[in-house]
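Design job #97: recover the sequence.
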């Protein structure tokens, strides 16, 4: 499982209009990039161009001077930069909006940590049983350094199934060099948590630390070893590590994705102690088209526009299609 929006840093920011790379849906794509105050702003989209902070979820600090960033974005429009909307979010633990820009709420999945014992005692009985079951079935969980041996094991792990959670596994079939590139970001402030059954890697989780908050960047339990519950064992180890380091929050992507309210991943998060925390996200229109799109709510994307029933039907049809192809 990959956290649904990845934008990992892979190129050095430049002082003027530049081209950088972003990791989107399993691929590295080249996008316009601009360095502002130590943050790299990139532009995504075709018919509606959104300026975003690259790797925003994984950065240690939030945007410090939005006005300076907006000024530079407007200046760059004459040089071929024409973003319609600039969006940025606040970071935990500050949940009260700091700015007066147009704002919506991000639904973040997070565990508020006060200690491993407290987290464990609040879990449903079935979740605790699954963690114990993984131990009884010989699963060993530990941290590892990122080296070529681990990458080779991860290639095998990724290629376990072409479909994950009813979606196409975008990393399936990737060669060694590509997998190494995909997973090599933020290693100076990450823990790589590995679950083994004997000598076989059956689960991988990457935690990125950013002060009082840690975030799960990659989460890959091996589907063919589901009976050993590596996913539950990995989450328990992640909570243990964060508690030891004094981390206040462990986040794992979104709790709700737009109007998509029910999914196996959401239920998994709930069963493992994640709750919804609403965080301010600001949207600043930069063009007339951007203002019109915001009035029509088009900046939210399909998951933020379509009703839940339509989204659920679409997911079911997509899952059936993937299963039919396999």
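Job complete. Output follows.
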């Amino acid at each position: 499982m990959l956290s649904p929006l990845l934008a990992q840093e892979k190129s050095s920011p430049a002082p003027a209009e530049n081209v950088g790379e972003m990791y989107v849906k399993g691929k590295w794509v080249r996008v316009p990039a601009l360095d502002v105050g130590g943050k790299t702003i990139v532009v995504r989209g075709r018919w509606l161009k959104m300026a975003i902070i690259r790797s925003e979820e994984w950065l240690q600090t939030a945007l410090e001077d939005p006005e300076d960033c907006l000024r530079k974005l407007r200046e760059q429009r004459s040089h071929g930069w024409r973003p319609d909307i600039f969006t940025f979010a606040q970071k935990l633990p500050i949940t009260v909006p700091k700015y007066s820009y147009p704002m919506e709420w991000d639904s973040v999945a997070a565990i508020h940590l006060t200690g491993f014992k407290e987290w464990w005692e609040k879990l449903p009985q079935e979740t605790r049983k699954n963690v114990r079951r993984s131990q009884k079935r010989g699963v060993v969980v530990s941290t590892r350094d990122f080296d070529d041996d681990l990458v080779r094991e991860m290639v095998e792990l990724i290629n376990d199934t072409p479909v994950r959670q009813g979606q196409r596994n975008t990393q399936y079939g990737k060669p060694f060099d590509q997998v190494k590139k995909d997973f090599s970001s933020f290693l100076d402030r990450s823990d790589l948590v590995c679950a083994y059954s004997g000598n076989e890697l059956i689960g991988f989780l990457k935690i990125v630390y950013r002060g009082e908050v840690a975030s799960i960047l990659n989460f890959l339990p091996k589907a063919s070893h589901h009976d050993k519950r590596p996913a539950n064992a990995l989450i328990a180890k992640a909570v243990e590590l964060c508690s030891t380091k004094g981390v206040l929050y462990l986040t794992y992507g979104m709790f709700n994705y737009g109007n998509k309210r029910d999914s196996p991943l959401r239920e998994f998060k709930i069963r493992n102690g994640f709750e919804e925390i609403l965080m301010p996200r600001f949207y600043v229109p930069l063009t007339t088209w951007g203002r019109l799109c915001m009035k029509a709510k088009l900046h939210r994307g399909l998951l933020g526009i379509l009703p839940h029933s339509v989204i659920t039907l679409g997911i079911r049809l997509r899952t059936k299609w993937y299963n039919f192809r396999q």
